[in-house]
Amino acid sequence: MCPKRALGEKVSWGVSLEPHHIIRKIERPDLIHEVDNGVTLCTAHHESVTGQEAAFVVRFSAYVKRMNARAAALADMSGFADAAGCA
Ligand SMILES: [Zn+2]
Domain total for the chain? Predict the structure, then answer.
């Protein structure tokens, strides 16, 4: 979720996305593979948060929580749409 993409802005082809651990691996190595502890950032945004990760924990965690709620809502509506026979 490069912030540009999260805001609906187009990101150029060829921009690399990198995994960013919301809670640093050194602080919580047990969360290294926990999907909800990660976001993807372009290289520039990843570099901009490096060294000040703690300042972004609340914001990134809230984003992941909202995206999980959105995915659950979409899944719920998908079942409803299928049941109604919508083409
Ligand atoms: Zn970015």
Answer: 1
